[in-house]
Design brief:
Elements (H helix, E strand, L loop, with lengths): L3 E6 L2 E7 L2 E2 L5 E5 L8 E5 L24
Length: 69
């Protein structure tokens, strides 16, 4: 995990994203990070059937180049 963003406004979760992947239908968030550890542990509880995607949307193919050997 390189980037973690948690935003609350007026007591409501507005955004939770980890490395660019957004989660919007959470029922619980747990974060554990001890001093000196390199990576935190994040536990998310997501209701079944919310159709959350655990991978980012594919990049547009317009940006790809064909490299010939």
């Amino acid at each position: 995990m390189q980037d973690l963003r948690i935003e609350y406004r007026e007591g409501k979760l507005i955004e939770l994203s980890i490395d660019g992947i957004s989660f919007s239908s959470l029922t619980a968030i747990s974060l554990h990070h001890q001093v000196g550890e390199t990576l935190p542990t994040v536990t998310l509880t997501i209701p079944i059937g919310t159709r959350e995607r655990l991978v980012p949307n594919p990049q547009p193919r317009d940006n790809l180049r064909i490299i010939e050997k």
